[in-house]
Write a structure and sequence with these properties.
- It is built from eleven helices and twelve strands.
- It is α/β, with parallel strands linked by helices and about 300 residues long.
- The protein has a single domain, classed as TIM Barrel (Alpha-Beta Barrel), CATH 3.20.20.
- Strand 2, helix 2 and strand 3 form a beta-alpha-beta unit.
- The protein is globular and about 60 Å long.
């Protein structure tokens, strides 16, 4: 089992992010990622009043401020940037990182951002079309000398992306869990799959559907890395855990009921048992998702007492 850290680059300072990144980078984590929003990832309309670092810029900083981890984004919204522009950014970041970049791609969901920035918020069918067209363009530009593609939403003609990434194959991920279309796109085009804040039981169901799509398309299911983002509220004892639960209620409000099945909430043994449930459901990696105010104490407890249980 590999472990990652997903850092929400919102409502915090750059220095706070760097401190967290460097800690995880030096503590043996395999992966650190950011997310792609212009406003804070919202639980209430008031959340839009906070601050949020832009994804390409902050991911480049993450690449520069770390030395060991894989560097990713979960996930870039395809509609926010033309895929050819994003491909060039990814190739550049790969050079900055020394060949450690991986790219998550998704269809996007935050309509308030689309509306505020004048980006058409298309029906989900069309946004999935954008995702499917875009991932093909990005793959081609990152691997082929010249790329041509003609789609409903995007087109490139005799397009080039130079320099190419340092690594031979910059891995592309698909994020989400729609069974009819999204998981088929993942099975057809992706190197990795990620889904956030769902229970081990639901993860297992979605993971099985992804495997079924791979089999239908003639692809080896083992060629796709399966990962889950989970929240974290960990404490050394039940008394301290009650305080952490109250912190979750203050941070997430009414959304906590929806999100808690996809969180690691408990003492160290309880969190270890929960991760084991995800492992049995097919998760290759566990990625701990933190948003400000970052619980450094809890993350350190997780690092020092939970992750070693899966490295023996």
């Amino acid at each position: 089992m590999l472990f990652g850290l997903h850092t929400g680059p919102q409502n915090c300072s750059y220095e706070e992010l760097v401190d967290l990144w460097r800690y995880a980078d030096n503590a043996g984590f395999h992966w650190i990622s950011v997310w792609d929003h212009f406003y804070p990832a919202m639980l209430t309309p008031e959340d839009a009043l906070g601050s949020c670092f832009e994804a390409v810029s902050i991911m480049t900083a993450l690449a520069k401020e770390t030395r060991h981890v894989r560097v990713g984004c979960l996930v870039f919204c395809m509609a926010y940037r033309h895929p050819a522009v994003l491909a060039n950014a990814l190739a550049t970041m790969d050079h900055v990182s020394g060949g450690r970049i991986e790219a998550g791609l998704g269809a996007g969901w935050s309509q308030i951002e689309f509306d505020a920035y004048g980006i058409p918020f298309l029906p989900i069918r069309d946004r999935l079309d954008q995702l499917e067209e875009g991932i093909q363009i990005i793959r081609s530009l990152l691997t082929q000398p010249v790329s041509n593609f003609e789609g409903r939403h995007y087109r490139v003609r005799e397009a080039r992306c130079e320099p190419k990434p340092l690594q031979d194959r910059l891995r592309l991920w698909v994020g989400g869990m729609g069974e009819r279309r999204l998981l088929r796109i993942a099975a057809q085009y992706a190197d990795g799959w990620n889904v956030p804040f769902i229970s081990p039981e639901l993860f297992g169901q979605k993971n099985a559907v992804l495997t079924q799509w791979c089999e239908k398309l003639g692809r080896d299911p083992a060629s796709i890395t399966r990962t889950v983002n989970v929240g974290l509220a960990i404490a050394p004892n039940e008394v301290e855990l009650a305080k952490k639960r109250e912190g979750l209620r203050q941070q997430f409000g009414a959304a906590l009921e929806l999100l808690e099945p996809g969180m690691l909430v408990g003492t160290v043994p309880q969190v270890v048992d929960r991760i084991e449930e995800y492992r049995r459901a097919g998760a290759d990696w566990i990625i701990v998702a933190l948003r400000a105010p970052f619980d450094r104490e809890g993350f350190q407890l997780f690092t020092e007492e939970v992750t070693p249980a899966f490295r023996r």
